[in-house]
Design a protein that fits this description.
Elements (H helix, E strand, L loop, with lengths): L3 E9 L2 H8 L6 E6 L3 E6 L2 E7 L5 E7 L2 H10 L9 E2 L5 E6 L5 E6 L13
Parallel strand pairs: 1-4, 5-8
Antiparallel strand pairs: 1-5, 2-3, 3-4, 6-7, 7-8
């Protein structure tokens, strides 16, 4: 199983206020936005999510090349998941693991690299 930590999602009180702040960071570009609920920014090679949620302060995002194989291996290793891979309402397919301290680790299928804002490619 080859996995890679690719980002974090901050759980915030006001998505729009946080988005206005983080969009000012050099090189930050908006990848996805659900007004008042969620925003996803690309910052360098990583992603920063902003989620309206008061259950926990943040969660980690881990990409893997084959989500089903990763799920099977987690099961073999005795790592308890919150269920099998699931397609979320916004189209992302992932699975969740809760660590011993209650922190959420989200495993998702690796995404193809996105072009920079404005559609330019290197």
């Amino acid at each position: 199983m080859s996995i890679s930590l690719v980002g974090a999602t901050l759980h915030v009180a006001d998505v729009e206020r946080s988005l206005a702040f983080y969009q000012r960071l050099p090189g930050a570009s908006l990848m996805f936005h659900m007004n008042g609920r969620f925003a996803l920014l690309r910052i360098g090679a990583g992603r920063l999510g902003l989620l309206k949620d008061d259950k926990r302060p943040f969660h980690l995002e881990v990409d893997c090349p084959d989500l089903d194989a990763t799920y099977a291996q987690l099961q073999e290793l005795g790592v308890k998941t919150e269920g099998p891979p699931t397609v979320r309402p916004w189209g992302e397919r992932d699975l969740w693991v809760i660590d011993p301290d209650g922190n959420l680790v989200e495993f998702g299928q690796a995404r193809a690299p996105q072009p920079p804002a404005g559609g330019a490619t290197a």
